[in-house]
Amino acid sequence: MLSVEENDLLTRVGSATPMGDLMRQYWIPALMSSELPAPNCPPLRVRLLGENLIAFRTTSGQVGLLAHACPHRGASLFYGRNEAEGIRCVYHGWKFDVAGRCVDMPTEPSESNFKDKVCARAYPCRERHGIVFAYMGVRQEPPPLPDLEPNMLPDGQAEVWTALRQCNWVQAMEGDIDTAHLALLHMGSVSPDDLLPGTFDYYTVNDRTPQYQVVDTEWGTMYGAYRPAQEDAYYWRIAQFLFPFYTLIPTGVLGVQIIVRAWVPVDDQHTMFWSMSVPQTRSNGAGRRSSRNGQPYAGSTGRPQFLPNTTDWLGRWRLAADASNDYFIDREVQRTQSYTGIDGIHLQDQAITESMGGVVDRSQEHLGTSDAMIIRTRRRLMRAATDWQAGRTPPAVDHPELYRQRSGGVILPRSADWVEATAALRRAFVCQPELVPQT
């Protein structure tokens, strides 16, 4: 368990906090390109790392991201006029470009140079395949964007979606690096007799207590969780954490699956989840069917349903199912069909992590052997935050190639060194058609 002070170090992301300062050194997924659909479209409220910001798209198509309060007298630029390569505060007409420079100050005399002395706080933005990334750090020249495989493929190949989660980013992210819960939260009512022998799901349900090996990497942490497969083999689930908030989950075949997820802190008690994946690569071992009857198991078919977006700070990408309606839990389905009575993998995870509260009190935890990856990742994050405060360069920030990783499941001989045996399979941007399961 962590002390209260360690929990604060790990979770707090506001300005002048060690973890918040660390986060600001990396590019951060801020919004979907589609949320600013056209030049000079209405501006958008965006909240990142506890800051209220305004995003806008200029006449030439550039994206700007400014502090919402006009530096004149604090009026919100959300009500501003998006026009001719800048956003103009409607209170007194001060206009700012994407770099935060004041380019017009109509209330000042024509001979005044006051506008040259005033800047709005602005953060550089870059767009790549449907995502607008923001850099909120201290460098004059931002680091390169990370080489996130699904975000670098040609348009149309990857699926991108995002959803607000009403809890701290760490407890949300930790669900992705906790493989033990798969066999219970998501598959607790599934019997090995329901599944095809030789599939990953079969091995998962047949032995619900995986053993773990966890290692530090240049880009974060990685685990290998293994269970018995054939007599002389193990089924390994290999997954990754990449600084500062990316996860690669092991739901498909290692070497085939292309997926990256991000857990972006909105503030201390809200997180924006991002999923970037190539859906057709997410098979589940030994063919695309796991169940004997070819049907998905109960509780696994639900897809996130969203409320209409609103314009307030927390009004984007909210799920219709939330704590106010108990995530549409069906107690009769829970009693007779599915383990949770909540339909959908994502929603099951959301319900559980939000049920812990806005920021879970880790001083009350009792961690077990299945929490090895969580323990290692927490330590890695806290060490990186304190190292940054001491002047050391954050992990992987200047090495975009380190993000070229994959995750997934694999069958290995019991004598194999899992790290060495999977090195080639974990390389992104490598086509390995011989691994694609046949239907």
List the helices and strands and how they pair.
Elements: H1 4-11, H2 18-23, E1 27-32, E2 44-48, E3 51-57, E4 63-67, E5 81-83, E6 86-88, E7 95-96, E8 102-104, E9 125-128, E10 131-135, E11 159-165, H3 169-174, H4 182-186, H5 200-206, E12 211-216, E13 220-228, E14 233-242, E15 246-248, E16 259-267, E17 270-277, H6 331-336, H7 345-355, H8 372-389, E18 408-413, H9 418-421
Antiparallel strand pairs: 1-10, 2-3, 3-4, 5-6, 6-7, 7-8, 9-10, 11-17, 12-13, 13-14, 14-15, 14-18, 15-16, 16-17
Descriptive overview:
This protein is elongated. The longest helix has 18 residues, at 372-389. The chain folds into two domains: 27-142, Rieske Iron-sulfur Protein; 159-435, Naphthalene 1,2-dioxygenase Alpha Subunit, Chain A, domain 1, CATH 3.90.380. With 439 residues, it is an alpha+beta fold. It is 16% helix and 23% strand. β6 (86-88) and β7 (95-96) form a beta hairpin. The mean pLDDT is 95. It has helices spanning 4-11, 18-23, 169-174, 182-186, 200-206, 331-336, 345-355, 372-389, 418-421; strands at 27-32, 44-48, 51-57, 63-67, 81-83, 86-88, 95-96, 102-104, 125-128, 131-135, 159-165, 211-216, 220-228, 233-242, 246-248, 259-267, 270-277, 408-413. The two termini are 45 Å apart. It has nine helices and 18 strands. The strands form four sheets. Strands 11, 12, 13, 14, 15, 16, 17 and 18 form an eight-stranded antiparallel β-sheet that branches.
